[in-house]
Amino acid sequence: MANKEMEVVKGVDLQRYMGRWYEIASFPSRFQPKDGINTRATYKLNEDGTINVLNETWSGGKRGYIEGTAYKADPKSDEAKLKVKFYVPPFLPIIPVTGDYWVLYLDDDYRYALIGQPSRRYLWILSRQNHLDEEIYNQLLEKAKEEGYDVSKLKKTTQTDPAPETDDAPADSKGVWWWKSMFGK
Questions:
Q1: What's the confidence (pLDDT) of residue 43?
Q2: Which contacts qualify for 41-50: CB closer than 8 Å, 24 or more apart?
Q3: Using an 8 Å Cβ cutoff, are 71 and 82 in contact?
Q4: Each residue of 96-135: b (16+ CB within 10 Å) or e?
Q5: For the chain, where are the E strands, in sequence order?
Q6: pLDDT digits 0-9 by tens, 68-115
Q7: Contacts with 68 (C-beta within 8 Å, 6 or more apart), sequence order
Q8: What's the CA gap between 63 and 169, in Å, rounded?
Q9: 72-10-47 Cα angle (round to 5)
Q10: What pTM was estimated for this model as a whole?
């Protein structure tokens, strides 16, 4: 089943997709701290059709973030297959890192989404709110299984209520979370 071609959403209205999305669950990755909470992404459509990406997480009481750019992998396709480019380390952005961002499921009201990529090493469940109804969560798990994902690797992301405001948080200006995540901490 893992070799099955993944189905991606077609005809996503990028303007409607823009804004803040909270990470409800994800596969652990070396790009995020293991103790990260309140992880979220904010997308803003640029005039040239690319998307400004701001990923944030809180670790040890400090806000860590990285900014990047997303763009359609094939501008002529209506499939929601994007490429995302970040420069690392975030405090001295010199090395470009590009990854796939495929929208595998998106509800009609743009309230929750399932995001993956062709190798199936990464998976995210996103929501416009910092929580998700358990029934919807389970439906998204089933969709991920249909696409060949081993959902036993999925880890729920702790979200506080209310979510922290960016301006109120001390920043991780030295990129400690990034260095720790590179060493599996």
A1: 98
A2: 41/126, 43/17, 43/18, 43/19, 43/70, 44/18, 45/14, 45/15, 45/18, 49/75
A3: yes
A4: eeebebbbbbbeeeeebbbbbbeebebbbbbbeebebeee
A5: 19-26, 37-45, 51-59, 62-72, 81-88, 95-106, 112-116, 123-127, 155-156
A6: 999 999 999 999 999 999 988 777 778 889 999 999 999 999 999 999
A7: 53, 55, 84, 85, 86, 87
A8: 6
A9: 35
A10: 0.88
Q: How far apart are CA 2 and CA 18, in angstroms?
A: 30
pLDDT digits (tens, 9 = 90+) for 106-132: 999 999 999 999 999 999 999 999 999
- Residue 134 identity (one-letter amino acid): E
pLDDT for residue 37 is more than 50: yes
Dist CA 166 CA 126 (whole Å): 19
Mean pLDDT, rounded, for 141-149: 97
Residues in the chain: 185
